[in-house]
Design brief:
The chain is of the alpha/beta class and 273 residues long. Helices cover 40% and strands 18% of the residues. It has an eight-stranded mixed beta sheet with strand order 2-3-6-4-7-8-9-10, with helices on both faces.
Length: 273
Amino acid sequence: MLRVLVGALALLCVLAFVAWVFQRRLIYLPDNSPVPPASSVLPDAEDVRLTTADGLELGGWYVPPVAGPGRDLTVLVMNGNGGNRAGRASLAAALSRDGFAVLLFDYRGYGGNPGSPTSTGLGLDARAAHRFLLQDKRVQPSQLLYFGESLGTAVAGDLAVDHPPAGLLLRSPFTDMESLARRMFFGLPVGFLLRDRFAVAEAVSRIDVPTTVVYGTADDVVPPEQSRAVAAAAGGPVDVVALAGAGHNDAVMFGDALAGAVAALADRIDAQE
């Protein structure tokens, strides 16, 4: 019996060591390869540079709405934990066709940017993007929508607490990183080891703006019940869009269906004014 107990404790220590040392390699999966020029991927898009409060220079793409009256709204996209902004080009194109301006940017350590990602760093990166839109593009807070994707829902929620937008769309949100970590480590109480907590549900409970939660019913990365729990916690009026049969990284989660959910959110905002 003692031998079994010692073995279990040893296994727990090994798992704790792995969780502490390698957790950020498990959370952040950047594609750090060079990103092509914006205009070579999206017509009329421009390459922009964002400067963070701690002195990093990040790359981004500003995508104007297609020719027409537009919606006078700009969507600030906060990516998930993988890839880089080029992987969100289809989303930006769909939003642009629907009359929105869009800012895609990469976090530190992603898309050829300097630095290494952390929760604090991603918060600084989002604030640099927000500052660029307000100062360089003269966008008013009442003209801003935040779009958070997966891990980016935590970044968007954190930004919205300090700088409320006109509306918030959360794609595949999770309640907090501890809940996801427990799934990864077989239900073990690893929360005390986490460096980056990403408490999405707690953040959105403090935000009183129109909110939309979109999730795939076949998501095997973020359990659908967690996305529904985030919707239930939202401090503002919330709509829930469940995409039947969609997985976490399916193509439908990066294109017209999501742009349609953003357009519906914008229509809700217009109806309130």
